[in-house]
Amino acid sequence: METIAVVDYNLGNLHSVSKAVEHVAPDARVLVTDDHAQIAQADRVVFPGQGAARDCMKAISDHHVEAAVREAAEVKPFLGICMGLQVLMEYSDENGGTPLLDLFPGQVRHFARGRVDDNGVPLKIPHMGWSQVNQAIDHPMWQGIDDQSRFYFVHSYYIVPDDKSIVAATTDYIDPFACAIASDNLFAVQFHPEKSADAGLQLLKNFVNWKP
Amino acid sequence: MGLAKRIIPCLDVDAGRVVKGVKFVDIRDAGDPVEVARRYNEEGADEITFLDITASSDERETIVHVVEEVAGEVFIPLTVGGGIREVADVRRMLKAGADKVAINTAAVFNPEFVKEAADSFGSQAIVVAIDAKRVSGEGEPSRWEIFTHGGRKPTGIDAIEWSQKMADLGAGEILLTSMDRDGTKIGFDNELTRAVAEAVPIPVIASGGVGDLDHLVDGIKLGGADAVLAASIFHFAEYSIGEAKQHMADAGVEVRL
């Protein structure tokens, strides 16, 4: 039986992530854990995240999950979600500037303020709701998901990776931005697959079956 | 193409059953909330909101079980409101599987609660529900005040200023209900919606008064809402969510089909 670790560092609601993973992987053991050994032994690792960049980095440090996350990101199927994508970058503008895990060179920036939509109403921040995801590459994680399918987003910051070759998808809200990255055994997304109905469940299923 | 406008069916839940009050008084039974939520999800709802209107405290716990059960099989955002008074209530609902909680009356009595909740769980999890009623007379500039206790108690607080204050304190979204329109089926108060949508930097959900599918379109186009919420037109199967979305798409509103 495969074990899938959902990394818990006491930020936000992991219930929906773990429930959705259980839903698509009924035969797997899904562990919500901050235990280094359990994360190290798991076959796959899901790395969700919520909250502000500084709180997120502090929680990663307080729960001593940094080493386990770094190791998992190197060696086994790894799925970052939302803040779990952003903290993989080098540096975030959030909280007056926050150094991140620096697995990939690049920044995390706030959406530009002050733009209006076709109805003359200000474009709202956070970007909250269903936006189209434009697949930039062929990837096993996109299997069975139509290009430009909509996924559910909630965020005020977005990643700007230096290396554009890692961009697996883009979305357009206020400005176009990278909403998914792929590199070897790692895939990470800004949107919430666990809240994105059928398209999201398909992505999680693809992750469970992914053999990088 | 950008962000889709959301359609949010709302389930008023009383002691574990879906009900819908007309102007919050006459209440009709509309089924088991878990079954109703499942149906809305299958029809393509973008989100589901539960408003717990249970009066008796020994039946309060039922909404937690409803949320737990729905969250285990419906994978779209879930919001729960009604009776959220302290941080422990927010935590309990999020733990049960809600993604957001809607704070209403408690925000009026203690605005700092909104800040406390947003600091603890993030703005994305905190919706402030505002029940507004027009208080300006004929020929006067439009003005709305907020009301509590299901629209019965006036507060003297200006609805626009209140919305801005809630956004400043960390609300991630405003659920704006027109008490004049709620249950009337004559459409949203689009002037109210637009006034709030233009005044705050966060998303606004229009609520109260939907009677047909054109009203949903008007809420977006005239009201400038980011999402539209309706209850009775969906509960009694007058329209499916799918029909509503197709109608909006045909009218040029960007939706998730």
TrEMBL record, chain A:
The UniProt entry, under PANTHER family, shows: IMIDAZOLE GLYCEROL PHOSPHATE SYNTHASE SUBUNIT HISH, IMIDAZOLE GLYCEROL PHOSPHATE SYNTHASE SUBUNIT HISH 1
Q: Which GO terms describe its molecular function?
A: glutaminase activity; imidazoleglycerol-phosphate synthase activity; lyase activity
Compartments (UniProt record): Cytoplasm
Q: Quote the catalytic residue positions.
A: 82 (nucleophile), 192, 194
Tell whether Membrane is among the UniProt keywords. no
Does this UniProt record's set of keywords contain Lyase?
yes
Which EC number applies?
A: 4.3.2.10, 3.5.1.2
Gene Ontology, cellular component aspect: cytoplasm
CDD domains attached to this UniProt entry: GATase1_IGP_Synthase
Q: What is this protein called?
A: Imidazole glycerol phosphate synthase subunit HisH
Q: What does this protein do?
A: IGPS catalyzes the conversion of PRFAR and glutamine to IGP, AICAR and glutamate. The HisH subunit catalyzes the hydrolysis of glutamine to glutamate and ammonia as part of the synthesis of IGP and AICAR. The resulting ammonia molecule is channeled to the active site of HisF.
Alphabetized, the UniProt keywords read:
Amino-acid biosynthesis, Cytoplasm, Glutamine amidotransferase, Histidine biosynthesis, Hydrolase, Lyase
Q: Name one GO biological process term.
A: L-histidine biosynthetic process
Which reaction is this enzyme known to catalyze?
A: L-glutamine + H2O = L-glutamate + NH4(+); 5-[(5-phospho-1-deoxy-D-ribulos-1-ylimino)methylamino]-1-(5-phospho-beta-D-ribosyl)imidazole-4-carboxamide + L-glutamine = D-erythro-1-(imidazol-4-yl)glycerol 3-phosphate + 5-amino-1-(5-phospho-beta-D-ribosyl)imidazole-4-carboxamide + L-glutamate + H(+)
Q: Give the chief site where it resides.
A: cytoplasm
According to UniProt, this protein's pathway is: Amino-acid biosynthesis; L-histidine biosynthesis; L-histidine from 5-phospho-alpha-D-ribose 1-diphosphate: step 5/9
Superkingdom assignment = Bacteria
An example Pfam family from this entry, by short name, is: GATase
**What is the annotated quaternary arrangement, including any partners?**
Heterodimer of HisH and HisF.
Q: Which residues form the Glutamine amidotransferase domain?
A: 6-208
For this protein, the record's SUPFAM superfamilies field holds: Class I glutamine amidotransferase-like (SSF52317)
UniProtKB/TrEMBL annotation, chain B:
Q: Which keywords annotate this record?
A: Amino-acid biosynthesis, Cytoplasm, Histidine biosynthesis, Lyase
The molecular function terms of the Gene Ontology recorded here are: imidazoleglycerol-phosphate synthase activity; lyase activity
| GO BP terms, alphabetized | L-histidine biosynthetic process
EC top class named in words: lyase
Q: InterPro entries annotated for this entry?
A: Aldolase_TIM, His_biosynth, HisF, IGPS_HisA/HisF, RibuloseP-bd_barrel
Q: Which residues form the active site?
A: 12, 131
**Family statement drawn from the similarity comment of this UniProt entry:** Belongs to the HisA/HisF family.
Q: Which HAMAP family does the entry link to?
A: HisF (MF_01013)
Q: What is this protein called?
A: Imidazole glycerol phosphate synthase subunit HisF
Which organism is the protein's source? Solemya velum gill symbiont
Name of the gene encoding the protein in the UniProt record: hisF
